[in-house]
Amino acid sequence: METVIFRRIVLMVMMTSMMVNMAKSELHYVGGNKFSWAPNVNLTQWSMHQHFYVHDWLYFGYDRHMQNVLEVNKTSYENCIDKDFIKNITKGGGKDVIELKEVKTYYFLSSCGFCWNGLKIAINVENAAPSSSPGHNKSSSCTIGINQNLVILLILMWGIIIFK
Ligand SMILES: *[C@@H]1O[C@H](CO)[C@@H](O)[C@H](O)[C@H]1NC(C)=O
Ligand SMILES: *[C@@H]1O[C@H](CO)[C@@H](O)[C@H](O)[C@H]1NC(C)=O
Ligand SMILES: *[C@@H]1O[C@H](CO)[C@@H](O)[C@H](O)[C@H]1NC(C)=O
Ligand SMILES: *[C@@H]1O[C@H](CO)[C@@H](O)[C@H](O)[C@H]1NC(C)=O
């Protein structure tokens, strides 16, 4: 009986930490809103104020009859070359998402000439910031840490009560 409860607790902790990790990843609406993978948006301006971490997601919202989303390399990005792209992100609905899985700079552009009008973006993905680096100004990460522990504790208690 004891071991059953113990196993359930372990499982619960694992699931909870997974949930917390998922909650930490952020969804970025490229350009600032759900319809801003568009020619009249200053994407450089937008990305200047963003931080992208591994496991964050990008959302490209646009007119599916006009634009598309292709991942390309640096050279192609700089020269607006839409041939021999790395990955076609376009799904056809004008609402595409992609997970930023690696620490690197991702390059995206829209073909059909829109790249020449500035419809391209370089996304510099960083490693997730360590939550408690010494000497670091961490007023905001403190709150997150406390909240996460609280959530884990609450779910743990809930699990013990349910399965007892
Ligand atoms: C976009 O914003 C950046 C940074 O504010 C600025 O340097 C650039 O000239 C803008 N581009 C256009 C096309 O307005
Ligand atoms: C980028 O991709 C193009 C097209 O596939 C290729 O010709 C070029 O060598 C690549 N550049 C780099 C730096 O990988
Ligand atoms: C990308 O994929 C979409 C959906 O499969 C397709 O309609 C589109 O033609 C593709 N674009 C390119 C440039 O291959
Ligand atoms: C936190 O960072 C801000 C801006 O970088 C700075 O002005 C402030 O003094 C820092 N606070 C502490 C406690 O280090």
TrEMBL record:
Any single GO CC term annotated in Swiss-Prot or TrEMBL for this entry: plasma membrane
Pfam families hit by this protein: Cu_bind_like
Domain Phytocyanin, residue spans: 26-127
Domain of life per record: Eukaryota
Signal peptide range in chain numbering: 1-25
This protein's record includes keyword Transit peptide: no
Molecular function, one GO term: electron transfer activity
TM region(s), chain numbering: 146-163
Entry keyword set: Disulfide bond, Glycoprotein, Membrane, Signal, Transmembrane, Transmembrane helix
Function: May act as a carbohydrate transporter.
Family, similarity comment: Belongs to the early nodulin-like (ENODL) family.
Protein name: Lamin-like protein
Organism phylogeny: Eukaryota, Viridiplantae, Streptophyta, Embryophyta, Tracheophyta
